[in-house]
Amino acid sequence: MLTNKVLAVLAVAAQILIFSTDTDAACKVPPELQDKDWVYEYTDVSTGETMTKTLSFGSTTIQQGISLEVQGSNINAWTCLSDLTISDTESVAVFKSDITFDTFLNNNRRLYLCMRFTKVTDDLFYFYLMSDKNSLVTPKERVFSPVSEPETNADVCSTYCSYGDPKPMIRTLRKPDTADKLPTDADLCENCGDSCIVSVPCTVSGKEPFTTGPTDGSYNYMDTITYSCNPGYEVQSGNRERTCQPDGTWSGSTLVCAAVKCQDPENGQFTKEQTSPGYNFPDGVTYSCIFGYEVQSGDLERSCQADGTWSGNPPVCKMTIDFFCETLLEKIENKGKSEKRSAESPEESSEIDTRGKGKANGKLKNLRKGRRCGYYKALEALILETCLES
């Protein structure tokens, strides 16, 4: 029986531990603050003196910089309990003390810090401790100390972040050896969960060359617009997505689209073509067949396409029958004139050795030459007849 009771108690304790761990793990310090030391400047709530310390954050903890005495206990370690994101530069985080303290009427009480952060730059934040002054702690500080533990899912602002007059004063966190300055309008933002950003509308007027996207209109803070390049164009610089910022400007830079490039086109066969130092969409190239030739296949006009390839195929030209016949007849005519001139002024023939083997070889050569001449004359006559008929 005792063993069962012990096991039941351990099971409940394990569930509480697991639940508590999951809840705390979900809460995080703003990422720029994590795992760094910061120069912490603030005004002491009791003396009004300007104080400077080092405040160190982990990913979910305050490790150094806020140390308080309460009922004989020194509290200097804090763990993030709950957080609230208000905008991309504003958030609220609640930290609970890692140890408890006892009072005359209550035991195991904790302190809670409600910190409202505003990011100015990556090197500079300011925040407010959004609770009333607590007289139990030394030095007096704006911390929340409830008599009983708040519910696990208690609302952040209404539970931990309430205060009256006087209102909290600004506190700064600055990276060491940096000099970023607070904006002149840095001030306490009320209510706890409301954004202090006073946004200026962003406008769009006109269309960017070779793009698809919004052409006019007014947009609010955090609105996003999207551009894309037209077919045949690709991104040369700039951003496809841009977000409206608090000052009325757009994040990123204007999308610039440039025409897709094509490699030089292939040469055709027996063609000539226009040349260019480079080809972009939708440039074209025109071929032409050389004199006496005509297109057999391919395309005389081709264009650089949106995907960077050429339309059609390189042309192949062949000689026309008219040009062939005209050239052949001209050669035959020139040959006839040449033979006539040779007959009118014959050259002296050299004496041929008719003795023995030399005489036989001479006859064989003349025989072969005669056969070739007869073949060529027959072929020439056939081609000539075809050309004259055409």
Automatic annotation (TrEMBL):
Residues 200-259, 260-319 form the Sushi domain. Keywords: Disulfide bond, Glycoprotein, Repeat, Signal, Sushi. Pfam families: Sushi. Residues 1-25 form the signal peptide. The keyword ATP-binding does not apply. Residues 336-363 are annotated as: Disordered. InterPro entries: Sushi/SCR/CCP_sf, Sushi_SCR_CCP_dom. PANTHER family: COMPLEMENT C2, SUSHI DOMAIN-CONTAINING PROTEIN. This is Sushi domain-containing protein. It comes from Mytilus galloprovincialis (Mediterranean mussel). The lineage of its organism: Eukaryota, Metazoa, Spiralia, Lophotrochozoa, Mollusca.
